[in-house]
Write a structure and sequence with these properties.
Length: about 350
């Protein structure tokens, strides 16, 4: 079954985008070009398996499209649970079909739990619960028009770094255990048990699997940005998580408004067989700062060409805080790609 799923995914990546996966001991599973790409070409485009609003955004933005409510067009409250808010009937229907029909009946329990949590933990808790409920859903998360079925197995297939997390952040591991316990109690709610046609309890993740998901989230989740590159939410993108990091990336990613589709474009010429990478961190930081952050946050020592060669004079310029040179060709190209996207 797993081998068949991976074969379907590989065929989809090759036929739809002209990319393929490759696995090595040093790099794990990563994405490489199966053909050449020019700057601006799309190398990958995928919807999130699950997404949630960011910290402090609930109540001010639509929970489906993330559009902000206004005095002229205030957000509408779900008439059933009185908790979820949407910009209109269309978003409410989309949310109901994809996930809210599973969350609505336990929304009061979700709200009570969130009120007792530190605000920065709430999005992670909400995302874990949503992924768990989707894994139990009798519906599907098919990407319309492509025929690719994104499943819970894709989420479980995202890499984790358990040894690094346990050694670097034992407090977070304890927090993961507590979050998983709360999520499990909500999944076992008698109110959810009444949704027998929509939920398959034989698929319910156990405590260890829930903790494993949180570990994967720590290394694979993506912030969803608005047009000003301000984080307004977070999402699980199993296909996007295949890409490795480079401090000299040949790809950049952005998100389509309202749908949260993650679109990854080439920002330099890519030859067939080249690895496709984006930067996990601020690539404008100097080499020592980048290496430190990657080690602390992701648990690896970057060996990309830029780090291997050392920053030299460039690092000296990056440490400064002068204004961006808007005549720089890379700045102009990046801005053009975003505007055309």
């Amino acid at each position: 079954m797993e081998a068949e799923r991976l074969q379907r995914r590989e065929k989809y990546l090759i036929d739809r985008f002209g990319v393929r996966t490759q696995h090595t001991e040093a790099k794990g599973t990563h994405l490489v070009a199966n053909r050449s790409f020019r700057p601006g070409d799309i190398v990958l485009d995928s919807p999130p398996f699950a997404f949630v609003l960011g910290e402090g955004r609930e109540g001010e933005r639509c929970e489906q499209c993330f559009e902000r409510g206004t005095d002229e067009a205030p957000l509408l409250v779900c008439t059933a649970c009185k908790c979820a808010r949407y910009c209109g009937a269309s978003c409410q229907k989309e949310a109901w079909k994809s996930h809210h029909k599973l969350e609505c009946c336990i929304s009061k329990g979700i709200a009570e739990t969130c009120s007792q949590m530190p605000p920065h933990v709430v999005p992670e808790f909400r995302l874990l619960l949503r992924v768990a409920l989707l894994s139990m859903s009798t519906g599907t998360t098919e990407d319309e028009g492509s025929g690719y079925l994104q499943t819970f197995a894709d989420v479980l297939n995202m890499p984790s770094n358990t040894s690094h997390m346990h050694s670097a952040d034992p407090q977070r591991c304890q927090g993961n255990t507590e979050i998983s316990t709360v999520v499990l109690s909500l999944l076992l709610s008698p109110l959810l048990a009444k949704k027998k046609k929509s939920v398959d309890f034989s698929r319910m993740p156990g405590p260890d699997q829930l903790e494993g998901l949180l570990e994967r989230f720590a290394y694979n989740d993506f912030s969803i940005w608005d047009e000003l590159l301000i984080s307004i939410g977070s999402g699980v993108y199993p296909l996007g998580a295949i890409l490795n990091h480079s401090c000299a990336p040949n790809c950049v990613l952005y998100y389509e408004p309202r749908t949260h589709r993650q679109v990854i474009r080439a920002i330099s010429a890519v030859r067939e067989g080249d690895e496709l990478c984006h930067s996990y961190i601020d690539a404008a930081s100097a080499t020592p700062q980048r290496l430190e952050r990657l080690s602390i946050c992701y648990g690896f020592q970057c060996a990309c060409q830029r780090c291997f060669a050392g920053g030299g004079d460039l690092d000296g310029r990056l440490v400064g805080s002068g204004p961006v040179d808007k005549s720089d060709k890379d700045y102009v190209l990046g801005l053009k790609i975003l505007e055309e996207g």
